[in-house]
């Protein structure tokens, strides 16, 4: 086994709820739930009562009557994320954003200037708290996989180093659910064959494992159980998609309510597309129903775009085609994302009659007004009075 434990996985603790507690001292030490109809996030004080992400407010109140609900503030979370990533980049030039609240850092070349990876991780945690006011957990290991597992074990507000010589002692006693790719269904398959720990996975051959969970999953889990993860920290990696989703809670929703949510989601996504100078061709609709089943539907446009009108039209068409299922099964979540990016300059060729489209000019004007005067300065009529409080964020610009 070669290499050194020089990869850091840094993961902010209960990010959304922690930002709320940071900005409102009266919330500190209390069970905070971010979201109005559905829990987007929960503080550790709320999690101790059993509050989990995607719980309806009704179920949250049942398990935690004293929960304090606060509406999401996406701009505040994005600003906090940018500040934290600024600290990451001051620590190491090799930073790979995973999501709005977590990243991998490679610090193997910083021994002389910053000390050991453990010392660097401790410094990172202190600086994030001192400069941004947020707690962060860091796992340190030889591979990305082990570093992420280490941060999960160390939460909340912890630091855990997995030395190369101690990888087996750290990983093997853990439950199989700690392996990337093991969800509820895969875990049930493994449990049905008496496989409950990583050590038991490592004890069987790859063919046997593949016969239980399938060829691809078998190869993947076998590699992880034998400490094989060749992935390096990659910087400058652009996202392959950009999207947003809204949990809608249970109960009957009118087509108008669903369309209003769709409009808000498309507005949010297309604004971020333009801010990031990305254009995509494929529109993907995600729906979740009352029984927690999910479906996706997609449509590919004839040319890539970042304009609101064509993306909204395609989204509405996909939604219309899915309405029979929605009426039959009930809708609890809707999401929209743009894929199949084309960032080549030729992707934005002007169509006849060789002039900028009115839609593009309008989008640009609205973006400029919102940038100068704030998001609420101008909005669609259907969104007036709406608290767009349950829309989940796409990654901020620094992680594109």
What does this entry show, briefly?
This protein has 400 residues and is an alpha+beta fold. It folds into three domains: 1-165, Reverse transcriptase/Diguanylate cyclase domain (Alpha-Beta Plaits, 2-Layer Sandwich); 172-225, DNA polymerase, domain 1 (Orthogonal Bundle), CATH 1.10.150.20; 242-399, DNA polymerase, Y-family, little finger domain (Dna Ligase, domain 1). The protein has helices spanning 15-23, 44-47, 57-63, 74-91, 111-114, 117-132, 144-154, 167-171, 184-192, 198-202, 206-213, 215-225, 255-276, 308-329, 358-373, and strands at 7-12, 32-34, 41-42, 68-70, 95-99, 102-106, 136-141, 159-161, 242-247, 280-289, 294-305, 331-341.
Question: Describe it for me?
Answer:
The chain is an alpha+beta fold. The chain has 3 domains: 1-165, Reverse transcriptase/Diguanylate cyclase domain (Alpha-Beta Plaits, 2-Layer Sandwich), CATH 3.30.70; 172-225, 5' to 3' exonuclease, C-terminal subdomain (DNA polymerase, domain 1); 242-399, Dna Ligase, domain 1, CATH 3.30.1490.100. The protein is 42% helix and 18% strand. The chain is built from 15 helices and 12 strands. It has helices at residues 15-23, 44-47, 57-63, 74-91, 111-114, 117-132, 144-154, 167-171, 184-192, 198-202, 206-213, 215-225, 255-276, 308-329, 358-373; strands spanning 7-12, 32-34, 41-42, 68-70, 95-99, 102-106, 136-141, 159-161, 242-247, 280-289, 294-305, 331-341. A 5-stranded mixed β-sheet has the order 5-6-1-7-8. Strands 9-12-10-11 form a 4-stranded antiparallel β-sheet, with helices on one face. A hairpin with a 2-residue loop joins β5 and β6 (102-106). The model is unreliable at 344-356, 372-377 and 384-400 (pLDDT under 50).
């Amino acid at each position: 086994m070669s290499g050194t434990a020089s990869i850091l996985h840094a993961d902010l603790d209960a990010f959304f709820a922690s930002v709320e507690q940071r900005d409102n001292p009266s919330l500190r030490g209390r069970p905070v739930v971010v979201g109005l109809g559905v829990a987007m996030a929960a503080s550790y004080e709320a999690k101790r009562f059993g509050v989990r992400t995607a719980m309806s407010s009704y179920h949250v109140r049942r398990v935690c009557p004293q929960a304090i609900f606060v509406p999401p503030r996406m701009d505040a979370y994005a600003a906090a994320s940018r500040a934290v990533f600024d600290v990451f980049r001051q620590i190491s030039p090799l930073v790979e954003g995973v999501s709005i609240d977590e990243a991998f850092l490679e610090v193997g070349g910083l021994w002389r200037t910053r000390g050991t990876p453990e010392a660097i991780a401790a410094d990172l945690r202190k600086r994030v708290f001192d400069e941004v006011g947020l707690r962060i957990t860091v796992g340190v290991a030889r591979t990305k996989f082990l570093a992420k597992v280490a941060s999960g074990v160390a939460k909340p507000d912890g630091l855990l180093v997995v030395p190369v010589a101690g990888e087996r002692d750290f990983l093997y006693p853990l439950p199989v659910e700690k392996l990337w790719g093991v969800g509820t269904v895969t875990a049930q398959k493994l449990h049905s064959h008496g496989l409950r720990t990583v050590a038991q996975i490592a004890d069987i051959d790859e063919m046997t494992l593949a016969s239980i969970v399938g060829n691809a999953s078998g190869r993947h889990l076998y590699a992880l159980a034998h400490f094989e993860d060749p992935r390096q920290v990659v910087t400058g990696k652009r996202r392959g998609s950009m999207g947003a989703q809204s949990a809608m809670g249970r109960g009957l929703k009118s087509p108008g309510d669903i369309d209003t949510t769709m409009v808000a989601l498309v507005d949010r996504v297309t604004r971020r597309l333009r801010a990031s100078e990305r254009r995509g061709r494929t529109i993907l609709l995600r729906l979740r129903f009352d029984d927690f089943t999910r479906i996706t539907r997609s449509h590919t446009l004839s040319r890539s775009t970042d304009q609101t009108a064509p993306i909204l039209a395609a989204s509405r068409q996909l939604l219309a085609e899915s309405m029979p299922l929605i009426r039959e099964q009930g809708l609890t979540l809707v999401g929209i994302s743009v894929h199949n990016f084309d960032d080549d300059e030729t992707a934005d060729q002007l169509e006849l009659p060789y002039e900028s489209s009115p839609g593009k000019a309008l989008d640009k004007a609205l973006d400029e007004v919102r940038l100068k005067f704030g998001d609420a300065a101008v909005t669609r009529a259907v969104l007036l009075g709406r608290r767009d409080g349950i829309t989940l964020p796409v990654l901020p610009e620094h992680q594109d």
